[in-house]
């Protein structure tokens, strides 16, 4: 499930209140003090999956962490460097190449992170079969015979 700007994250009012206060204060202790609740409750609420999802969504979509905003800034930097190169009629294209390589590396890292997140979401036990053998109290093998012999001698 990708969190886009138009996607709603289901979250209860109390979880939302704690999450928003935490975003403002950036501290469990301060959040607990402002809401007049115990730090343990704040910590427990912040570990809930819906709260984590909400906080991640806010961090990813706000400020310079927003990938669209970051891409725009990087494009502006590249445009300025290209303009400087044209205006100077001399210079090295190495600066521009470094910027393009940095942008490409950031994009590759982002794609790797998205792939890893999807793998983590889809991972888990697909099929599991548990077998319980209810033979004699200790089983029929050598281990079972040894236990029976030890317990009979007592």
Please state the average pLDDT score. Answer: 80
Low-pLDDT sequence parts: 1-6
Rg result: 29 Å
Residue share in helix: 55-70%
**Largest β sheet strand count, sense and barrel closure:** none
Task: Please state the structural category.
Answer: mainly alpha
Distance between the amino and carboxyl termini: 61 Å
What percent of residues are in strands? under 5%
**Morphology call:** elongated
The tally of structural domains comes to 2
N-to-C series of helices and strands: HHHHHHH
Number of helical elements: 7
Q: Total number of β-strand segments?
A: 0
Task: Lay out the secondary structure.
Blueprint: H1 13-25, H2 28-35, H3 39-47, H4 49-61, H5 67-88, H6 94-122, H7 142-152
What does it look like?
- With 154 residues, the chain is mainly alpha-helical.
- It folds into 2 domains: 51 residues; 58 residues.
- It contains 7 helices and no strands.
- It starts with 12 loop residues before the first helix and ends with a helix.
- The N terminus is likely disordered.
Key structural traits:
single chain, 154 residues, mainly alpha, 7 helices, elongated
Q: Can you describe this structure in just a few lines?
A:
This protein has 154 residues and is an all-alpha fold. The protein has seven helices and no strands. It has helices at 13-25, 28-35, 39-47, 49-61, 67-88, 94-122, 142-152.
